[in-house]
Amino acid sequence: MEIVPAKSKPIRRAIVALLSLMLRVFYRHIEVAGRERVPEQGSILYVLNHPNALVDPVFILCLTTRPVSFLAKSTLFRMPVISYFVRALDSIPVYRKQDAGEDTGRNRETFQKCRELLQQGGAIAICPEGVSHDEPRLRPLKSGAARIALGAASAGGRNIDLRVVPCGLYYTSKTTFRSAALLYFGEPLKIEPVALEEDGEPPREAVAAVSQQIERALREVVLNAEHEEALNTIARAERIFSAEAQEETDSQPNLKREFELRRRFIEGYASLRARAPERLSALTSRITRYEEELDQVGIDPRDLTVPDSPRAAVSRAIRRTVPSLLLLPFAVVGTAIHYPAYKLAGFFAHKFSGSYDDVISTIKILAATLLFPLTWAGAGLLCYLFLHDWKYVLAALLLVPLAGYAAVRFYEELDRFIAGARALLFFITRRWFFKKLLVERRAIHEEILSLGNQAVSEVGN
């Protein structure tokens, strides 16, 4: 079979457009950082962490500027519906030991296909951890990515310009509808050719060295907490830290900034836990008390901001309320029509995911991709049965999805309005308590800075 780089075929463009729409609907905010680092020419091997099952490669597929082929586990090529998509996207099967009945000897053919594709200037994406998982850190990397890169750069006497591009995926809440996600491109690694062994494979020492390079590069673009407890503590601290920083700069936080803050906290956490456990424990207790006090009044840490003048506060409330009221009739219709499909997608996700959170989003998106079009088709069918006019069918197929989107936007604006109103009411009725919490937040912010500086100093020494 001839191996050619993935091309933007009509069916591929259609699938990418559909998947892009799915991503934009499921995630309220998607951010891409470091895109300028990705070479526009030459061969590319994308390596990415794997916290969210089939959703992870979709980000690479939809948010890179070049067509990409994927390494996908061979079992996907036999699954109904999914097999059609993986083949249409020029995926290459990988035969894994943990998949019953698979012949891992066929991976030799897989490596050869990857080499040929890269030697022709193509782009491939691979998850070197091998499996999707829920752990708060990188799992040990498989050697496949290094073997593919070295084999492509060294085989056939060709001097190709091959770069390995590390990609970090960061989800604020990967299983939650309308959460946010960040795709972070790191610095590309230039792969130099080596002398291959007699069997055509790169030497083990070279593979181990490149694998270590890839792992270090990936650690720069992912969160890598050793324990779930550390990640939870860091996330709580970051919410307070970023809320205080937002108050100071009067700017909206972004995912790249949030990610980098959390990564710096993680880097210092291990040192602080070993050298300043009392201060770290005291900070954790202080954060807990602060959160409990916020819970008493129903305020999120990021909503605890001093309001502007009463006139400005009222003006902002009006600006938020009027569009929401205009959306209300469409939101009511959209909610009524789409609610059964929405609940069913959630039901299927939790039923079939078992205890694995990393596959919940995948099942939700796949179920929604089936159930929502069926809902729209059902609305069109009802229009035809009762009104006997294709004009109403076409109108339903257009307006019903728009009503569903109006419902999503309405509830998001409603949540923002309620949060802002609750914070304003708290400020007016219990100003002394409000100011006490602001002072406490500032004190926690300063302690986080102090501990962070201490950790950096100790690591530097």
Account of the protein in words:
The protein has 461 residues and is α/β, with parallel strands linked by helices. The protein folds into three domains: 10-219, Glycerol-3-phosphate (1)-acyltransferase (3-Layer(aba) Sandwich), CATH 3.40.1130; 228-305, no CATH class; 310-429, no CATH class. It is 61% helix and 10% strand. The chain has helices spanning 10-26, 55-63, 82-88, 107-119, 144-154, 204-219, 228-249, 255-275, 277-297, 310-353, 360-387, 390-429, 431-460, and strands spanning 27-33, 43-48, 69-73, 92-94, 123-126, 162-171, 179-185, 189-190. Strands 1, 2, 3, 4, 5, 6, 7 and 8 form an eight-stranded mixed β-sheet that branches. Strand 3 (69-73), helix 3 and strand 4 form a beta-alpha-beta unit. Helix 1 (10-26) crosses helix 2 (55-63).
Rg computed from alpha carbons, rounded to a whole number of angstroms: 25 Å
Strand content: 5-15%
Oligomer status: single chain
The CATH topology assignment of the largest domain is: Glycerol-3-phosphate (1)-acyltransferase
Assign the CATH superfamily of the largest domain: Glycerol-3-phosphate (1)-acyltransferase
What sort of overall outline do the alpha carbons produce when their principal axes are compared?
A: flat
The number of domains: 3
Query: Structural class of the helix and strand makeup?
Result: alpha/beta
- Given as residue ranges, the uncertain stretches (5+ residues, pLDDT < 50) are none
Q: Biggest sheet, in brief?
A: 8 strands, mixed
The end-to-end span amounts to: 57 Å
